[in-house]
């Protein structure tokens, strides 16, 4: 599966997290113009099988896709061996532990929606949303919904902040 971080309705890494949760065995390769080292490391850390820069040559894109389809990982040569800091790696692992529904709830929290609004949008009870919010807070190791959104925003490079700012 090819996935663009700027795809409408996906909001960056939240779309990758959702797809990884729904289809854990599917190879997902990010193709994006946002190809700075931190973005690439975060994509791989959140479960992408590969990362292709939109500026890559057709030959490189073809090689990357073939590599991912063989079940291997594709990382641009200039990032092989690059390490992310320990705190970011731990946060990525915590974000990967969210279920697809929890990712949806977290995205909606980032839009500033109330539990009642989220429940309506997802077609679930408000109690279910509260349970998801509690699970999100526990998994991310934060004490409130604002900090959960800010933690996710650190990975999203500013794209997940929505209506809630520091």
Automatic annotation (TrEMBL):
One of its GO terms (molecular function) is DNA binding. Residues 1-69 form the Response regulatory domain. This is Two component transcriptional regulator, LuxR family. Keywords: DNA-binding, Phosphoprotein. Pfam families: GerE, Response_reg. GO terms for biological process: phosphorelay signal transduction system; regulation of DNA-templated transcription. Coiled coil: none annotated. PROSITE patterns: HTH_LUXR_1, HTH_LUXR_2, RESPONSE_REGULATORY. SMART domains: HTH_LUXR. It comes from Afifella marina DSM 2698. The modification 4-aspartylphosphate is found at residue 4. Residues 91-156 form the HTH luxR-type domain. InterPro entries: CheY-like_superfamily (IPR011006), EvgA-like (IPR051015), NreC/VraR/RcsB-like_REC (IPR058245), Sig_transdc_resp-reg_C-effctor (IPR016032), Sig_transdc_resp-reg_receiver (IPR001789), Tscrpt_reg_LuxR_C (IPR000792). Gene3D superfamilies: 3.40.50.2300.
């Amino acid at each position: 599966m090819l996935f663009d971080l700027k795809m409408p309705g996906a909001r960056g890494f939240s779309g990758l997290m959702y797809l990884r949760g729904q289809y854990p065995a599917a190879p997902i390769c990010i193709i994006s113009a946002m190809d700075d080292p931190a973005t690439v490391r975060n994509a791989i850390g959140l479960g992408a099988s590969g990362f292709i820069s939109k500026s890559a040559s057709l030959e490189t894109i073809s090689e990357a896709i073939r590599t991912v389809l063989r079940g291997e990982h594709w990382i641009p040569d200039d990032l092989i061996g690059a390490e992310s800091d320990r705190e970011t790696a731990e946060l990525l692992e915590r974000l990967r532990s969210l279920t697809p529904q929890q990712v949806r709830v977290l995205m909606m929290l980032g839009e500033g929606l109330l539990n009642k609004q989220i429940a309506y949008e997802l077609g679930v009870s408000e109690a279910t949303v509260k349970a998801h919010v509690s699970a999100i807070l526990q998994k991310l190791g934060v004490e409130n919904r604002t900090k959960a959104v800010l933690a996710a925003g650190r990975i999203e490079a500013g794209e997940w902040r929505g209506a809630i700012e520091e």
